[in-house]
Each structure stands twice: as structure tokens, then as C-alpha cells.
Amino acid sequence: MLSLKDINVSFDQQQVLKDFSADFNENQTTVIVGPSGSGKSTLLRTINLLNYPTSGTLNLNQTSFVFPKQYPAKEVSHYRQNFGMVFQNFELFPHLSALGNVIEGPIQVLKQSKTAATEKAKVLLEQVGLAQKADSFPNELSGGQQQRVAIARALAMEPEFILYDEPTSALDPELEGEVLKVIKDLAKKRNSQIVVTHNLNFAKEIADHILFLEDGQVNYYGLAEGFFSSKNERIKNFTKKMMS
Amino acid sequence: MDLMSIIDMVRQALGPIFIAGLQVTIPLTIVSFILALIIAGITAVSRISNSRILRFVFATYVWIFRGTPLIVQLFIAYFGLASLGLTLDAWTAAVITFGLNSGAYASEAIRAAILSISNGQWDAARSLGMSRLKILQRIIAPQAFRIALPPLFNELISLVKGTSLAASITLVEMFLVSQRVAARTYQPLIMYIVVAFFYLMISTILVGIQSYLEKRTTKHVGGNTHA
């Protein structure tokens, strides 16, 4: 279980997460929703320690971080291996082929052999429907294809959780579907996923749990059904606005 | 003076200048530039490190070597240090000075190239659990190399021409040879045009190498391939 307790994150005096506490379970898809600027992406990046909290505790299984203490870079890198991250702008490595992107982590970080990593990468690319594109470079792929490679890259590390930071916001509507389908398939297979999205229709389809973040604090955290049938005025307003 | 004797004089000068180029100017440039690249790489990485001391030390180095004339640096290395009992031969003094001087400029090209790679690339590599050194080596360097290529070749071309200053510390490179021929033949105009032509040839070859390397490396990195 991933557990955040009393987490505070600030940038330049501005507090983005305020005494944030939540637990995230394995084998579930949790979708984080909320208005722009509510701290959704910051929360996701904080989970992966791409941002450092000013205070609070972060627990994953046996590992524990208590802030504001500074931890050695090695410990942080090791912790990050528990998470695969998918970014809004894909962030594939442009100098590496699709296959090269997927095997980079396993070879460089997990010290797998090139043969073993390549074999597994091919299975993953197949899984995201891009077996034919293994040798293509990112600039030869559409946005949707790039994002699917990015998902394969994250999966190749066999992370505990996959974190998605608005994975389809940079995509044309007609390319969105292919990426959403991959995430949905992974949800069905009971992967542990945390997804930040604006797309509430999609959230409804895949979420076991919804976390509604407002102004850096948890407004709702519970079953997805409960969120979409909530009588709470704030939630009703939000879902109405976002799903119209 | 008739045309035939001019042609004859040029022909006689070509050999010694060519040999000086082959034996001194070109090796001096290559060795100095390799040294410069090593220094520049270390400097650039140190200047973006978290260590305030490292940043200060290397920023000071760049400040001094960019802020003082190359010829003064050569004189300090060759004549100045000798007065302290540290006697360097002309070749060594030239390599060290050119390496440090060029390294200061090249480090800025490399530093700028590294900083131009988006934070998203760092984040993506970090999220794979890569260490800072590994990220620099595997993800940033290959992309930064392409971006740094044009300014680094600028630096290399200016270094080729800069080696002519080594004549002033008695190193017998192309320019010093041409000076000697000019003194002997009383034909400074012709001789200096001939040696200028040699520098131009070397630069032209370097421009060719640059455009070849750019074509090879721009294939997938960076959005712009219209050149």
C-alpha cells in the first residue's frame, strides 16, 4: 500500500498540497480529478518524489520517507523504481527508437541483459498495439503512438504503480481513444494505477476509486459510483461542468 | 617582378608551410581541442551541479580564461611560468593554454546545450530510477551533443586560426614559417596570402565535417530538419 500522511508541498510561498493524506491500494485504478490548479499533477509528481514535500510522511510497503529530511539520491532513485510514470507530453527519448525507449530502464537501471529486455519489450509493444513500430523513432510516430510507447516504457520496469499525468490532454480527440483503451485494458487486468485526468467520462469507465482534489485538499475520496451519484453540491457542479 | 618568378616563389613556399601545417598546426589543434572538450565537459557538468563550491570554482575558471587575451595567456604560460622556475617547452605551453582557453568557451556551448533539454526529459529518466550521472550520460548528452555541435565547431575553427599566435612563443607552425619565407623573399603580401589560404583550406574541411556530423545526428533529435 502507498500511503501519504500530512503531506505539504509549496512552490515559491504558494502552498499546493495542504496536509494531504490518502492511501492508495494495489490492483486498483484510482482516478484523481479536480479543477485546474487544485494540485492534481503536483500530487502525482510528489508520489514519485519528482517534487519534494516540505513536510509529511510517505510510505510504500517497507519504505518510509519523513520530510523535510533530505534523503540520499540513491535512495530516492531506488524508490522511484516502484513507479512507472506517463507524462502529458509523452517525454519519449527522441534519440532512441520505440524499442530503445522501452529497454532503456530495464538495461540501465534493473541491469537486465539486452536480450532479455528486448524480448520483454517486444511483448509490451505488442500489448499496446505497436509491435510493428519497434524500430520507429518518436518523431516518426503519432502522438497516440508515442503515448502508447511511453506506457510500454513504464510497464517495462514492472512498477508497483503506474502514474498517469493527464495522459491524453496533448492528443487530438481521434487519437485519445487508442491511449484510453490501453489504460482501460490495464485497469481490467488489475494493475495498480493512479490517473490524473480531466476526462470524467473516462474516469467513470476505469476508476475503482475517485479522489476529488480541491485547493490542495481532499474533497472526496471513495468509490467511483459514490462520486458520480453524490448529492454534494460542489461535486455535482464539478461533474456537470466537466461532463457536459 | 614577373609572373613566372612569383609562381616559382609560391611553389617554393608551399612545401615548408604545408609541412608545418601537417606537423604542428594540425596536431596542435587536435590535441588542444581534445583537451578543451574534456575540460569543457567537466566544467559544464560542474556548473549545473548542486555543489556551490564546484560551481564557483569552474565559473571562476571560465571568467578568467574568457576575460583575458589568448596571447597574454600564452605569454604567461611560456615566459611567465619560466621565471618561477616552471619551464614549459613551447609545444606544452601552447597545448595547455589553447586547451584551457578553448575549454572555457566550449564549456558554455555545452552548458547551454544541456540546459536546452526540457525538464520533462529529466523527469522521464528520473521516473525510471536513473541516477543523475546516468541521465546525463544516456539521455541528456546524446541530445545536447547535436545542439552543441555548431558552436563547438565555431570554437574549433577559431582555435585553428588561434594556433597562429603560438608563433609568438617560438613554436614553428604555419604562420611562423610564412613569416620566415616572407623575410627571406621580401614578398610579405604573397606569402601571407599563401598562408591565409592554408588556414582557409583547413577551416573549409572542418565545415564539411560539421555538416556531415549534423546530418547524421539531426535525423531523429529535435523538431527541425529543414536546413
Which CATH top level class of the largest domain in chain A fits?
Answer: Alpha Beta
In DSSP terms, counting alpha (H) and pi (I) runs of 4 or more, how many helices of chain B? 8
The greatest inter-chain interface is formed by: A-B, 32 and 23 residues
User: What would CATH call the homologous superfamily of the largest domain in chain A?
Assistant: P-loop containing nucleotide triphosphate hydrolases
Q: Enumerate the spans of chain A where pLDDT stays under 50 for 5 or more consecutive residues.
A: none
In the CATH scheme, what's the topology name of the largest domain in chain A? Rossmann fold
Strand content of chain A: 25-35%
CATH architecture tag of chain B: Orthogonal Bundle
Q: Can you write the helix and strand succession of chain B as a string?
A: HHHHHHHH
| Classification by helices and strands of chain A | alpha/beta
- Straight-line N-to-C gap of chain B: 48 Å
The count of DSSP E runs of length 2 or more, i.e. the number of strands of chain A, is: 10
Task: Count up the domains of chain B.
Answer: 1
What fraction of residues of chain B sit in β-strands?
Answer: under 5%
The arrangement of helices and strands of chain A along the chain is: EEEHEEHEHHHEHEHEEHH
Sequence stretches where pLDDT stays below 50 over 5 or more residues of chain B: 223-227
The outline of chain A comes out as globular
CATH topology of chain B: MetI-like fold
- How would you characterize the largest beta sheet of chain B? none
Mean pLDDT of chain A: 93
